[in-house]
Records
---
Amino acid sequence: MDLNLREISYFLKVAELGSLGSAAAALAISQPALSRALKRLENRLGGALFVRHTLGMDLTAFGEAFVPHARILRADANRTIADLNLLRGAARGVARVGIVPSAASFLLPPVFERALKRAPEIEIHVVEASSTQLVADLERGHVDFAIASALPAQDSETIAATDLLKEQMFVVARRDHPLAAAGAASPEDLMRYAWIVPESGNAILLELRKMFMRAGFEPPRASVSANSVHTLKRTVAASDFLTMLPAMAFRREEEEGLLRPLALKLPEIFRDLSVLRRAARPLLPAANLVLSEVRDLVASGSAPLQAPLVRANTRLLRRPKERGPGTVHGIGLPRPGPR
């Protein structure tokens, strides 16, 4: 069965707008021409894609099932064209990187510097989003690879995950928070304060809930939720709010004396970050270069990953352990306590 990429693009536009007339106007073609193209695509696929009615067009169950496949086909075609243009020198390489916000400002700046030294002509586009959203972006071809939790990808048949690093998580407060000088905090102590947490879909929120539930407590109610790590940190630094953050996310604020990890009467907790990518799609040269720099930075333990966070001779990056298909590296702050 031969599929026509133009017809696939037409189909996606109609599915997006829900109207033949609106889609025809957006595509700058006539409605009869668009209708004929959709009919040809339906004949090739062997099923009706839309239910047509006076108010517009609705996807059939068959059409709904075809949408994600159509998006992948279109994205693959666009990336193939970009690859060919790159090979014949008609375009610069582009790497589209997805990453969770809590890791972006720590991992990416040195990667940018290293990658652009090796290939000054490439362009790097960054998408910061929750792990759940990044899995969706990968499936739709919006990013080449993502640095995120692998949990949302467990049920995906198109996403492959390889371990990148293991990082310690902390309950974080302002430096002079009442709990900072009270010794190790219990779950009851933590419940007495308001919490600001990431929005749903974020692996940090999942780890926070797991920490309380393992101790036999209901997770604290979030008074405020935000999708910005900067907002989380600034709110905590200026108030008695508590939050949970991975080690790398508040390293700078820890050094500046704005934030500190609280000692807890609870087991240490960690999060895993993985490299997620489309299993059946090889990376283009620019994306492969950026990913190799990410892996090299984590594996080397060089600055900024090796830099001590609080005390001298404290290594941020521990020796890796082998697990599954990739390598896990541990990242953690020194054990919190009075300073």
Note: The domain at 94-165+272-331 is CATH 3.40.190.10 (D-Maltodextrin-Binding Protein; domain 2).
---
Amino acid sequence: MSKPISIVRTVLIGLLLMLGIQDASVSAMSSGTLDADTHRQVLVEVADVIRDRYADPKVGQAIADTIMTYVKQGGADSSIDAEALVAHVMGVIRSMVADRHFDFSDRSAEQDDSDPSPARKRSKHGLRTARMLANQTAYFEFDGFPGDDESLTAVAKAIEEQPAMQAVIFDVRDNNGGAGDMVVLLCNHLLETDQLLYTFAGRSDAAATEVRSSAGDQYFGTAMPVYILTSENTLSAAEAFTYILQDLDRATVVGERTAGMANPSRTFTIAGRFDLTVPFLIMRYGKSGGTFAGVGVTPDIEVSADSALDTVLEKLEADG
């Protein structure tokens, strides 16, 4: 626990004691215990949001019904620890939906401050590095996939400015995802025209919408070797990019299994304390129409994230 949080909590508890609040109340606040009314309120709000917002109405209704049956049977008629409440809600969600974008968390939970290393700063346009390596290999490291026009233009320019290349490596090992527009841009430089990239459908859509490739200004062709480096920190849109090119037999994926966050989502505040993140679109990817929700993308060559780049460079050297 950080010192400022400790100090604030100590002061609050001291004030409660001065005002004559019983030790049980102090203990409840300190442990994050919610009373029965709050317990019930949180579950009802969660059920309402999922029923009204989840991309698949039938599944959303089933999750909400499960939660409300628990409430009606008296399951929420007692106090509960916030951590236990989160675990209960996540248990219901995971019993029906694997996508790791679908999440419920307590934003007031104490953070682990034991790691002194600062978070790595994200690049302005998502492209951290663009350079040539040995054997005429282009290397692009992306830490995000922003979808604004300025970022799309900057990335397209960086790709087009690279000299003649014999292979290309996309490094998304530390990529927290972003927009489908960047996925389409990159795929356009690597695929023939009119390849199915993905489909999406929302709650009220009668049919899914298709998104297909169109040839970019610099078309690399289908013969140039393409490698994608992955890790457990490859998230969301970066996973989509990886899955599509692997599914279309256009890239070799090297590294670790990705996170398994497949569908775009929005976050709602519950009872002023909890965050409920709910997918609002159902996505299907590549020629197979598959998904990586909950399971991630499995590498073709599974090695540690730290050794993924060296593994590819050694392979390129051996292949001549």
Note: Residues 1-31 have pLDDT under 50 and may be disordered.
